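# step 3/5: fold
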Amino acid sequence: MQKADVLCYLEQKKDELNEISHKIWSNPEVSGEEKESADLFRILLAENGFEVKEIEGMEHAFIAEYGSGAPVIAVLGEYDALPGLSQAVDTKFNPIKQNGPGHGCGHNLLGTAALGAVLAVKKYLEETKLSGTIRFYGCPEEETLAGKVKMIKKGAFEGCDLALSWHPMAANTALEHAFLAMNSIKFRFHGISSHAGQSPEAGRSALDAVELMNVGANYLREHVIEKARIHYTITNAGGAPNIVPKEAESWYYVRAPFRKDVEEITERLFKVAKGAAMMTETTVDYEVISGCYEMLPNKVLFDLTYQNMLEIGAPKYTEEELAFAKALQETLDPQAVAGETKKLMPEANGEEANIHQGVLEKEKANSVVVAGSSDSGDVSWIMPMNLFLTACFPLGVANHSWQATASSGSSIGMKGMHFAAKVLSGIMYDLLNDPSIVNAAKAEFNKRTERRKYVSPLK
């Protein structure tokens, strides 16, 4: 059985994978509530001969393993949806359920591609009796950037040699750099309630403290590195206006290109919170509810991923699919569409381009900036990890949008998913047949982490 046979097997599974992906898309479950999606993957993997292992204390996380011996390859699967992004497969805003959840980040595609890949490579291992172990990791809570961080803390990834990951987006490219490191922190202020009109002098407003902290944080923005981001919401602002608020809460995200920058800015933000509490004679406590790392590069796996993307070749699209993509683009800012088109498909020369076709040149890969955060970054700090994107959305469509939800349920999204499944399978085939690649990836990882080891953001 050769690589071509593995890819042919995936072609035969195409309709089945489409059905699984659409089932997850049609039943979106937000972070922490992914019961049906996780159980669907558990059942399918168990039926196909994988040993399913649970992770203590994480109801919707699991490991499904097949094979024996080295190398041990982790394939990351996600399946959580986003709140408020319900949307039909339509070119106009059309929620299936008003304010309901939806797969605006394409995790229905992400998890299903990982499933297809491990099923194909399982068949390869079964027929060849080759040494090697593949593990499908059912990873919940990615959208809250906590799932894999918790899994690492529980030792779920112990014994793995390397990890493979991908993500739906509007481009076909391997990535060497991605993600912003991040802390998610809730600040709770405690004051003294009183009648706001009759005896305001007796009260100490927790809301005043929240607002003063926000002012301080806005001034702090001027004195952090240019690429850092500090954003917040007020999650509890008190009750009726005639009562001095005794309790108030704000929720902050601190992002930066490197974990060390996030940690330094977070310490300064703690000082701002303490200062706000001092000014208002309130008290404050805070909790880092999640945090994650940037992706640690691994050039060996980047090169291997790029090679497989070129070898397999990006999908082609029907006239109907291109028309659907164009109609979605018409709901977007034309400048955003034009800017992404110029960056990814300069050969269009101002002509209309709807979906990224082909694979972005290796030299241009780092021009694709993934400025969000992901707990997959943490995995890259405990073992070598790759990352690639496939075009599951039209050019200009951003993740976490209703247009992305519509695309994730469409045939465009499914084609990107099948491309990803083939790339993952091709990478695993090469790793299983050439131990030198595994050794080189691990040697690079060890060198990069000589002076800085992973420390969990969670206490």
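# step 4/5: annotate
Residues 14 and 418 are 7 Å apart (CA to CA).
# step 5/5: archive (pending)
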